[in-house]
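Hi there,

I know you've been waiting on this one. I reran it after we fixed the sequence typo, so this is the corrected version. Both the input and the resulting structure follow.
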Amino acid sequence: MELTQVAESEKYDAYHGAAQLAAKIEDAMFKKFLSLSKDYSAKARSLLFNLKDAKNPGLRLKLLSGELEPNTLSEMDGKALASEAKQQAREEAKEKNLAARRTDWAQEQQKNDIIEGAFTCFKCGSKRTNYF
């Protein structure tokens, strides 16, 4: 067998394996939704977007390696399908929002942001003051 024939054979095997995987995903989604409803279409778009995302190679690798089953994939929500970088950014934003809801947030931020101000403290004479 020539080298080009081996390469063509490997391409065919990869394509055939991907087609079988796509059929399994489609079957799992149809079993979950039982019809071609709006929810089915939304889930299909979500899966397509996340699987095609260049910033999310981990999802494709998990799926192709068998670590992630098509049935599990069809059950995952958008947050779980997102790339690890996106999940980490969401977690940081969530923690930042939780910190901002604290009742003493303004005081904590002022402790960290104290610089020499335009006002002088009448008690100690320092210029490291805050305006409330």
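Quick highlight: The chain has a mean pLDDT of 78.

Best,
R. S.
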